[in-house]
Amino acid sequence: MPKYKRILLKLSGEALMGNKNFGMDSDVISQYAREIKSVTDLGVEVALVIGGGNIYRGMNEAETGIERAHGDYMGMLATVINGMALQAGLEKTGLFTRLQSAIKMEQIAEPYIRRRAIRHLEKGRVVIFGAGTGNPYFTTDTAGSLRAIEINADVILKGTRVDGVYTADPEKDPTATKYEEVTYQECLTKNLRIMDMTAFTLCMENNLPIIVFDMNKTGNLKKLVDGEKVGTLIH
Question: What is the DSSP code (8-state) at residue 234?
Answer without folding.
Answer: E
